[in-house]
Structure formats: C-alpha cells, structure tokens
Write a structure and sequence with these properties.
This protein is an alpha/beta fold and 205 residues long. The chain is 38% helix and 22% strand.
C-alpha cells in the first residue's frame, strides 16, 4: 500500500468519525488488540476467517477476559445466547467483507448478529481487514461482497446457493441463501467508537 492511498483512506474514514490504523502483519494486530483491551472487559467476537487466523478468542480467554464467540458454542441454543450477549459487550472485534477508499464499510450477513453489533451496542468496535478487501468505491465494495464474499463464505459454511456455481448473485430465494442483510456503515455518531485495523496482507474473503 502506498502512502498516498493510506492518507486518502485515513482522511476519508476520519471525516466519518472512524479511526484507522495500518499494520504490516496480522500478528501485529493481535498484539495491539491485547494491549488495547483491558483484561476485565467483556468482548464479543464476530465470526471471521481473519480473526480465526490469530486465534484471538482463545488468547483473550486465556488471560481472563470474558469472551462471547458463537463459533465456540456447543449447541444452536448456546450459539443463539452468545450472539445476543455479544451485543452488550464492552468491546466487539470482527472482520468485514469490504471497505471503500471513500470511507464505507460494507458487510453481508446471514442472521445479522455481526452487523447489529457493529452498528450499536458494544462501546468499542475493532474491525480487522486485509488489503484484498479495499475497493475504490461503494459500488465496487457492494459488488465484492455479493459476488466474491458470499459464494466463498457459503462454501465454507456448507451451503450451496446459486452464486457458488455462477460466480455472481442472482438474488436467489432458495433455502440455501446465506445473505439476508446487506449493511453499509457510512460513519459513526460517537467519534472513535469504531477502529479500523487495515493489514498489508491478503486475509480472508
Ligand atoms: S442472494 Fe443468493 S445468489 Fe445472491 S449472493 Fe445471496 S446467496 Fe448468492
């Protein structure tokens, strides 16, 4: 990432009350998260391939923090309860499907718990994203989440929507549909509630 692009991204997100920090390696993000969040805080975790790569839930739990991560649930009922409780945590950490250089954060969600927590509830939100998800414009970001993120996430979760074969969205109404919530975050009312950690690596999809 060149410096001009970084400055453009910082300026555009800052004008929307979102703090941006750049990292060279995902490992550095892990260290920053551990420094930033006090041990006594409660922490919600959004389902994210990016976060799984740094095993953040385990690390936070090992040091004594209370973590709500639905991927650690042993039953559907437990998963449902964890998703609800993660909406009222001190911190929420998640990945995202795409960002635009203009300052948008674009996500597509199945049940919507992740986007709900990003928008309101937790006092602080950290969003970790690799450089592969940086798009020029909002339209490009929406295109990315529909035509790239959804098929790959569907495959990972064991669903088989039409976009998996067609490599594009056909607004399906099948039982295999995995995208029910397309959410564009255009800014924050509370300054610096949301921190965007951008990593100079290709991570997740
Ligand atoms: S609506 Fe259906 S085809 Fe379109 S992205 Fe979602 S799951 Fe895929």
């Amino acid at each position: 990432m060149d410096e001009c692009m970084k400055l453009e991204i910082i300026r555009n997100f800052k004008s929307r009350n979102i703090d941006v920090v750049f990292f060279e390696k995902l490992e550095e993000v892990k260290d920053r998260i551990m420094e930033l969040i006090p041990v006594s805080c409660t922490i919600g975790i959004g389902n994210s391939q990016t976060l799984k790569e740094i095993n953040i839930s385990k690390l936070l739990m090992e040091r004594g923090s209370i973590v709500f991560d639905k991927t650690l649930a042993e039953s559907n009922e437990e998963s449902k309860q964890i998703k609800k409780r993660s909406l009222l945590t001190d911190w929420y950490i998640t990945g995202t499907n795409a960002i635009s250089k203009k300052g948008h954060i674009v996500n597509i969600d199945h049940s919507g718990n992740r986007v709900a927590a990003m928008m309101y509830g937790p006092d602080n939100v950290i969003i970790v994203v690799g450089k592969n998800k940086i798009c020029e414009t909002l339209d490009d970001a929406i295109h990315r989440v529909r035509d790239i993120s959804v098929p790959l996430n569907a495959k990972r979760a064991g669903y088989n929507p039409p976009c998996l074969k067609l490599n594009k969205c056909v607004d399906c109404k099948t039982d295999e549909r995995v995208c029910f919530n397309l959410v564009i975050i255009e800014g924050q009312f509370v300054k610096d509630r949301m921190k965007l950690f951008i990593v100079n690596e290709e991570i997740g999809f």
